[in-house]
Structures are given as C-alpha cells and as structure tokens.
Amino acid sequence: MNLVKIKDKSFNLFISNEEIKKEILRVANQLNEDLKDKNPLFLGILNGAFMFAGELFQHLNIDCEISFLKISSYSGTSTTGKIKQLIGFNEDIKDRTVIILEDIVDTGHTIDYLVKLLKEKEPKEILITTLLYKPDKYEYKDKYKINYCCFNIPNEFIIGYGLDYDGYARNLDSIYKIKE
Ligand code: IMP
Ligand code: MG
C-alpha cells in the first residue's frame, strides 16, 4: 500500500514495516548492552507507543519490567500543548533507571511533562527512547537529551505504527507521511 486515505487527508508511504523492525532491533541491541546490570523499568506512553513498546520489548534480553502511562496532548494534526494524564502507574521508581518509550518526540512538551512527573518519584535516572524524533520542532535540546532514537524525521505529520490522525490509522503496519 503506497497511499492511504484517512478521513479528509491522504498519506504516502514513508517508512516500511521492514525498516521499522530493523531500526527497533538496532535500538534494542543498544539497550541490551547499555542497561544489562541496571534492572530498568520501561514506561510506554499510551496510546501512541503501544506497537513500538511491544516490538522493542520482545528483543530485550536483560532483567527488566514494563509499565504504561496514558496521557494525551494532540488533537487533529497539531499538538495542543496541554497534557492530560488519563491513566497513571503504581510502580515504585525510587532509585531505579526508568526508560520512557515514546512513539514520537515533536515539540517535547510531553517529555517535559513526563520528566517533571517522574522526577518527583526520585528515580536514579530517566532515559528517553523514541521511535521517531522531529529535531526541527524539539524545543528542549539543552534540557533533555534524546538517548535512543530509531528515526530522525522532518517536520511533517505522520501516521501509522501506533500513531494516529484523530484516533484512526494506528493499525497501519508502516509509517505514512501527509500528502501536501
Ligand atoms: P510533543 O509533546 O509535541 O513532543 O508531542 C508528542 C505527542 O504528540 C506524541 O507522543 C504523539 O502522540 C503526538 N504527535 C506528535 N507528532 C505527531 C505526528 O506527526 N503524528 C501523530 N502524532 C503526533
Ligand atoms: Mg504519544
């Protein structure tokens, strides 16, 4: 499938499922190497990161746990900047290595919100892992480093592999870019 139509918009194939899996495996291997003695807790950010978290987690071969946090900030094709926590998590993260798993880092407002929220619980360290990253949009370069990333992408709206347009298209196994 090279072209998909969701509601009023058309999207072109941008990153195939094969390429996605290859990059996730690369990042998983890096995490296996870097975190082997750290007993980390992975924290998947719902809804968008569910496919990424599922694929990545299968390739981890270290002692680790996973939990999920549900927040929302996007409406249509742009971020609202206002973040709401919809489902929290109960794990005690004091003195633990926590790895945020995001589908995409855009402005970084979500990351800013999450890091502040997690810091209150006094983890040992917080690392950021994302499937996609829009460096031209990110506003927190001096504040939070993106530790692990599968793809740097231009500043364009994309869907698929967990990412949605108004709730739809999360089921696509590849990533599609909005057609101008
Ligand atoms: P940020 O707070 O601006 O970094 O936005 C982060 C969240 O907005 C992500 O977790 C996504 O859920 C959503 N988002 C950002 N860019 C896109 C996109 O291109 N397509 C779909 N969702 C996006
Ligand atoms: Mg998200």
Kindly describe this structure.
The chain is α/β, with parallel strands linked by helices and 180 residues long. Helix content is 21%, strand content 37%. The chain has three helices and ten strands; from the N terminus they run E-E-H-E-H-E-E-E-H-E-E-E-E. It has helices at 17-34, 50-58, 109-119, and strands at 3-6, 9-15, 41-46, 65-75, 78-87, 97-105, 125-133, 148-152, 158-159, 175-178. The radius of gyration is 16 Å and the shape is globular. The mean pLDDT is 94. The structure holds inosinic acid (IMP) and magnesium ion (MG). Inosinic acid binds at residues 48, 73-74, 79, 102-110, 157-159, 163.
Topology readout:
Blueprint: E1 3-6, E2 9-15, H1 17-34, E3 41-46, H2 50-58, E4 65-75, E5 78-87, E6 97-105, H3 109-119, E7 125-133, E8 148-152, E9 158-159, E10 175-178
Helix pairs in contact: 1-2
The structure holds inosinic acid (IMP) and magnesium ion.
Multimerization state: single chain
Largest sheet: 6 strands, mixed
Strand order of the largest sheet: 5-4-3-6-7-8
**Shape, principal axes of CA atoms:** globular
Q: Give the total of beta strands.
A: 10
Give the number of helices. 3
Helix content: 10-25%
Which structural class should the secondary elements be placed in? alpha/beta
- Rg calculated over all Cα atoms: 16 Å
Provide the list of bound ligands, each named once.
inosinic acid, magnesium ion
Low-confidence stretches: none
Ends: how far apart? Answer: 18 Å
Query: What share of the residues does DSSP label as strand, in percent?
Result: 35-45%
Mean pLDDT: 94
> What are the secondary-structure elements, in order, as H or E?
EEHEHEEEHEEEE
